[in-house]
Amino acid sequence: MAEPIAVELAKKQKEIGVAEFFSRNRHLLGFDNKKKALMTTIKEAVDNSLDACEEAQILPEVSIEVIDMGNDRFRVIVEDNGPGIIKKQIPHIFARLLYGSKFFKLSQSRGQQGIGISASVLYAQLTTGKPAKIVSRISPKYPANYSELKIDIQNNRPDILNEKEVEWNKEHGTKIELELEGSYTAGPQSIDQYLKQTAIVNPHVTIIYTNPKAEQIIFPRATDILPKKVQEIKPHPYGVELGVLLDMLKFSEARTLRSFLQTEFSRVGGNTADEICKNAAVLPDAKPKEVSREMGEKLIHGIANTKIISPPTDCIAPIGQELLEKGLKKEVNAEFYTANTRPPSVYRGNPFIVEAGIAYGGQQSAEEPIRLLRFANRVPLLYQQGACAVTKASVQTQWRSYGLSQSQSSLPIGPVTLVVHICSVWVPFTSESKEAIAHYPEIIKEVKLALQECGRQLGIYIRKKKNVQYESKKRGYIETYIPYVSEALQELLKIKDSEKKNVETLLAEILEKTRGTIEAVEMENLEYDEEFAKIGKGDQDEETN
């Protein structure tokens, strides 16, 4: 008797390894094509360097060198002055996917999933067959360790080809060298633009970049002030889901439900824990491991019906209004700058802050859509602009109120660079490649409020500029005819030629008294601006509601 087909099918089923899955689905990690792969590789290495430096409170200096090897092959070398990596951790960090500490911490960081740099190593291995070369040193008292690594794709384990101690002239830091298939072109989604945008939102960083044409570009730091060191927080009750709550209860070491709520969540004290239990109709002394699914559902409802303080915000480090404006001035040539940092807000129990900045004028085209620069945790988002919550909020903002022309459902037209930065303990990206932010209503609302505040300042400037230009134009017309009027008066009143200049002077004085000085026009603008700001605030509240 023949075996059922299900038996044959069962023999073909087996577990899929993490590295094996991503080796076949590299597009999920941002390696869609050769151009994007080269940029993503540099992005992941730079992100790691900046995170490490900031965590160790070291002012970052990052060197990036891209060497064209011919035949669509490039050698990428990224070197930093960070704290370095201990020898036994080097293989796991660079040659093992889904390995790291950031996934488990609720604090702001550029990396989140433990995939980035190891995915770059995997891509280099797949396209050239060559290993990653890493040098790292943790102190002048310790030697520098050199490693050559590949990834065992079947088992998602590091394959160490070579390890040794080497001489290195750095006191501490890390250097990675990869050879991979890629493509280099300039443009809005190039390495050059990524590093320029990184310099805008990281004004404390010095970047030294040597491009494939062997041209060196330096992005100097604009400040010696490091971002504040973020603190790790515990999850907030408002963000927990039933399945997650049941797992937390199962593995908790707390003896009572009351102590479980206090120790496992932020902003839950004794009184709040008692109120949650009361609203959930469960006993505070119940043992966490004995909580059933039905009791868990009651707890979720109890949490929802309890007023709990918003999570702490020392876990996130915004750029700040002043430094964001400095970053814009350093990298964008314009005539007017403004920036705004919103108060902290929350989505799904996760604290976040939205910042926005505008650079207006300069060499930018006045006939094209504004240039929108999106950032998450100080990292530029160069791809999938149309799928991002930031783009949606920018389109929904009524820019005509602020002096820009705008068609329905599109970005406004004008010589504007618009920067939007979102920092959070967990940025809700739409995919593993971290290129667009999900459309959470809370995030869209905060982005719009930040844009409206910057928009009001832009509107004030544009109106002031137009008024001064209009007044200057009128004055120009009148001043053109003063000599002719002077001659006519001279003939009518029979004024001597020697006094002709006095007549012109008197006419100019009459102009000043009648029209007022340009400074007086600017003062009138200032009074008007204050009224406009009040009106704009009302429009903002109405639009947001």
Q: Would you write up a description of this structure?
A:
- The structure is a single chain.
- With 545 residues, this protein is an alpha+beta fold.
- The protein has 4 domains: 18-219, Histidine kinase-like ATPase, C-terminal domain (Heat Shock Protein 90, 2-Layer Sandwich); 237-304, Helicase, Ruva Protein, domain 3 (Orthogonal Bundle); 321-449, Ribosomal Protein S5, domain 2, CATH 3.30.230; 461-544, no CATH class.
- Helices cover 41% and strands 18% of the residues.
- It is built from 15 helices and 14 strands.
- The strands form 2 sheets. An 8-stranded mixed sheet has the order 5-4-3-6-2-1-7-8. Strands 9, 10, 11, 12, 13 and 14 form a 6-stranded mixed sheet that branches.
- A hairpin with a 4-residue loop joins strand 4 (144-152) and strand 5.
- Helix 3 (34-55) packs antiparallel against helix 5 (116-128).
- The longest helix is centred in the C-terminal third of the chain and has 53 residues, at 441-493.
- The radius of gyration is 30 Å and the shape is globular.
- The chain starts with a helix and ends with a helix.
- Mean pLDDT is 85; it is low at 523-536 and 538-545.
Q: Separation of termini?
A: 71 Å
Can you identify the CATH superfamily of the largest domain? Histidine kinase-like ATPase, C-terminal domain
Number of helices: 15
What's the assembly state of these chains? single chain
Largest sheet: 8 strands, mixed
The coarse overall form would be: globular
Strand pairing plus helix content: what structural class? alpha+beta
Domain count, please report it.
Answer: 4
CATH architecture of the largest domain: 2-Layer Sandwich
| Mean pLDDT across residues | 85
- Share of β-strand residues: 15-25%
Look at the structure and give the CATH class of the largest domain: Alpha Beta
Helix-residue proportion: 40-55%
SSE ordering: HHHEEHHEEEEHEEHHHHHEEEEEHEHHH
Tally of DSSP β-strands? 14
- Main-sheet strand order equals 5-4-3-6-2-1-7-8
CATH topology of the largest domain: Heat Shock Protein 90
Radius of gyration: 30 Å
Low-confidence stretches: 523-536, 538-545
